[in-house]
Amino acid sequence: MSDGTRGTDDRNEPPNDEAALSARLKRLGNRLAQANRSSENGSGPRQTADPSAIARGFRLSTELVAGVLVGAMIGWLLDRWLGISPWGLIIFLLLGFAAGVLNVMRAAGIVRERNLSD
Amino acid sequence: MAVDPIEQFHIQNLFPVAKIGNTEIVFTNSAAFMLAAVLGLTIFLVGATASRSLVPSRLQSAAEIAYEFVATTVRSTAGAEGMKFFPFVFSIFMFVLTLNMIGLIPYSFTVTSHIIVTAALAFTVFFTVLIYGFVRNGWHFFNLFVPKGVPVYILPLVVAIEILSFVSRPISHSVRLFANMLAGHITLQVFASFIILLGTGLGVVGWIGGVLPFLMIVILFALETLVAFLQAYVFAILTCIYLNDAIHPGH
Question: Which pLDDT does position B82 carry in this prediction?
Fold first, then answer.
């Protein structure tokens, strides 16, 4: 009811409407500026979500595979150089898997980036 | 007549450039497309910013949109200080985006479907982060690998995992772009070969049936255009996230 009366009032007084509109625009501008400022000053990482589900899924899977691959590669190289086969491969494959899971959790935003506070 | 879906990725030697030892340096079709992308980008950006009018022309506003887009990405992921790296991120984004888009033109060559190219880009980012982070923060940079509040007895394990996680970044960074482009282009080629196989195998009925894979190609092509843009964006945003670690380690 009150909305209806306000609507008719605005229609009857165009200058008032104009003023209200410009005030609202100004408020919106202030809020936008504030939002921009806070996102610029926030020095921490803003892990913005990947824009589509495919990209997100693909990102998570490559993160896991990359971790395991790097672990396997380092383990295999250590085995060859130090002659401790198969221990290097076993240990670094497990570590690599853990690193892959950590990568995935970071990419998904479950663990905060670089801050395992608990 | 089967169509080889991998054939489109073959590197062809165009002409030899130099010879170092026993290794011949050859100008390939891949190099030609990279050169074309760089030249095209340079002409586009120089041409767009030449007039610098207050009311931008169409070309100028395209360049301005590209600038704004990347600048917002850099600011929101790496903070205001990350703008130091804006030229780097912008170059990478525009280069990858142009190569992806050129690759969508039929009969052209997709440079980013070769892992050596994406790996070179990813390792450039990786070493930039490593070197800049170390120069800027000194030994403090390695706090990146030592999370706070972890009990001493499991710290070695956690540090090992953190280092492995850091080292695995360029791999996931490069594989993502490369695999997306490779898979997309193979899919397109396979669906295109269905039309030819149907047509040559079944005659008129086959050609009519070929409408179905053709429709799939149209849909997939739209998807691939999206993926081409998205992967360039993802590559750029991950670059920003990694650079952020060099700028603010261990916060």
Answer: 86
